[in-house]
Amino acid sequence: METEIKENRQWKLLINGELACIWAITFSDPQIWEDSNDDSAIYIHRIATNPKYRGQDLVARIVDWAKVYCAERQIAFIRMDTCGNNQKLIGHYTKCGFDFLGMAKLRNTSALPAHYEDADVCFFEIKL
């Protein structure tokens, strides 16, 4: 997180001055997005929501922010991934504007957090 903060890739959403959620972005995610990694994209990771603000469509607000951020930088895609076949979460992300691209196992998870090992990974994308 310290590196993300130094590189201006860690973000927060405040509501009435209170921390509602945080997330990180990266501009490259080759171990997860593999052959699609060469596209001009931001990859959203680790959305963490303050329990007080759950159920308030904060992912949709992050998507709105990301669309502006990408337009200003001529970035073509907003992407996210999540592990597991969680139909409720898949529905939530598609409701927020993401296309669900499907699920797959990753080829190389050696540098990724342990939860990616042998997991089914869901891929989401918004083409701008």
Could you describe the 3D structure shown?
A hairpin with a 2-residue loop joins strand 1 and strand 2. The chain has one domain: 3-Layer(aba) Sandwich (Aminopeptidase), CATH 3.40.630.30. The protein contains four helices and six strands. The protein has 128 residues and is of the alpha+beta class. It has a six-stranded mixed beta sheet with strand order 1-2-3-4-6-5, with helices on one face.
In short:
By secondary structure, the chain is α+β, with helices and mostly antiparallel strands.
N-C termini distance: 27 Å
CATH architecture: 3-Layer(aba) Sandwich
Overall strand count: 6
Order of helices and strands: HEEHEHEHEE
How many discrete domains?
A: 1
CATH superfamily: Gcn5-related N-acetyltransferase (GNAT)
Strand-pairing-aware structural class: alpha+beta
CATH class: Alpha Beta
Keywords:
128 residues, alpha+beta, Aminopeptidase, 6 strands, 27% helix, globular
Task: Draw up the topology in text.
Elements: H1 2-6, E1 10-15, E2 18-26, H2 30-33, E3 41-49, H3 58-73, E4 77-83, H4 87-95, E5 99-104, E6 121-127
Parallel strand pairs: 3-4
Antiparallel strand pairs: 1-2, 2-3, 4-6, 5-6
